[in-house]
């Protein structure tokens, strides 16, 4: 018959054996073959997580939405000098730059680098101008226009190579068209922005694209008022007319 004392003794004899087995396993893993296996496994994991993605970046160009990329060499855009061997819808013609649409593209050989271009919409304020209407009214006009680069080979060549300051050139074209539109308007109040926007875009959008390589999205008059000179001249004329009316009444009497 077993006593409680003998059971405790047997349990205490088994604990060192279990502890020594775990320690032996750890020493074996940290030994020559075990350490070598751990190093190989860790190196493989690091290669998969760090080295391979870095290598893929050398051969793959990723263009996000709202951006375009043009191929460059030595920092200058490459202009296509011969037709494509395999023509595509977005390939471009001779004399245009090579454009990459949003997505992932192969970048082999490695000496072809790429420049990212932001093709999202942006706004530019026009200088405050005093413009005369058809009936002689003079308006002080605050206006702005929204525009964005067009991601095609022809348009990006104009945008990148032919124009030094796109905003200034586009501002001059839009401002001239806005002046022509307001010059043909009657009355002391300008029409709604939708009407002005439609007229200015119809008059200048093609010229802006041809000269600057950008799309004219919208033209807005953000503020307008009759000029001080016009209000003063109108007041003086009204005063003169009042004196003439008084003189005419006296003459009748």
Silhouette: elongated
The helix/strand series, from N terminus to C terminus, equals HHEEEEEEEEEHHHEH
Distance between the termini: 151 Å
Indicate the low-confidence ranges by residue numbers: 8-15
Estimated structural class: alpha+beta
Q: What is the number of strand segments?
A: 10
Helicity range: 40-55%
Overall pLDDT: 76
Strand proportion, as a percent range, falls in: 15-25%
What is the gyration radius calculated from CA atoms?
Answer: 39 Å
The main sheet comes to: 4 strands, antiparallel
What does this entry look like structurally?
The chain is of the alpha+beta class. 50% of the residues lie in helices and 23% in strands. It has 6 helices and 10 strands, in the order ααβββββββββαααβα. Strands 2, 3, 4 and 6 form a 4-stranded antiparallel beta sheet that branches. Strands 7, 8, 9 and 10 form a 4-stranded antiparallel beta sheet that branches. Strands 1-5 form a two-stranded antiparallel ribbon. Helix 4 (166-183) crosses helix 5 (193-212). The radius of gyration is 39 Å and the shape is elongated.
